[in-house]
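Exercise 4. Each item below gives a protein and its sequence. For each, produce the structure-token representation.

Item: Adenine deaminase (Streptomyces actuosus).
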Amino acid sequence: MPLPKAELHLHIEGTLEPELAFELAARNGVSLPYADTEELRAAYRFQGLQSFLDLYYELMSVLRTEQDFADLAEAYLGRAAAQGVRHAEIFFDPQAHARRGVGIGTVVEGLWRALGDSERNHGVSTRLILCFLRDESAESAMETLRAARPHLDRITGVGLDSAEAGHPPAKFREVYEAAAALGLRRVAHAGEEGPPAYITEALDVLGVERVDHGLRCLEDPALVERLVRERVPLTLCPLSNVRLHAVDTLADHPLPTLLDAGLLCTVNSDDPAYFGGYAGDTFDAVRDTLHLTEDRLRELARNSFLASFLEDDEERRARYLAEVEAYTF
Ligand SMILES: [Zn+2]
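Answer:
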């Protein structure tokens, strides 16, 4: 039985496996510029964040209907459950679909077909987090939040993703203020390829409660001290960092340093279909390569539930935490 855990940094579009991509392409009459799944997998050698994003956006063009999004989420939930995920807070990118003429209603209601039955079918509770693309304009983000209004009963929070460099968090001050006024939780990618100052800005200007990635905080000792003091969770994605060259190899990943510094670290899969592993695979990889002790692994699992947006269901959080403490390796 795998260690029970929550996954807090997972882009649902990043769970699109080549096999499902081809199946949906055929169903929707979309042609992909790859002969087969082999050739597509061979394209997964990325030079950095941008080269990954180019393929990521190209491939998601196969997602058209509610059923496509339902199938995508259903496939993820099955895999996640098999790897010990008990709770998943799932990102989605409405702007990336809107530009293909797929409305946010199709995305949210489609995902919900799977998420709504996830506890019964997979034993996984879920939350949805709407992400703004930071390389799009602030006006487009605001428009997206407006379009999301009829679906807010399905959405727990907002996030910020896509190309980080040159797109500081402050660009989205107004839309985050609007999201907060709607009662939405706030997270943002910061300090992945962008500088530590973006982490500080995400906290101070956007009011984020968790930082996605955040590993470059190590370049600023005062920031590390603050993150520890304020118990700000980091949603780290070690396999993603290797594939996108934020670190050279997994053995070089600063996770042990971040844990030793007292940071509230969690370990997540980001875009597992592209980066070589789901949540359990990621735990196994950091255990084996970074030689994490059982205490450290239990700490990571505990942190994942502590950092979850489960304030509306503390009983459930307590149950999950008890599962972590009772787990025998
Ligand atoms: Zn991400």
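Check: Residues 76 and 166 are 32 Å apart (CA to CA).
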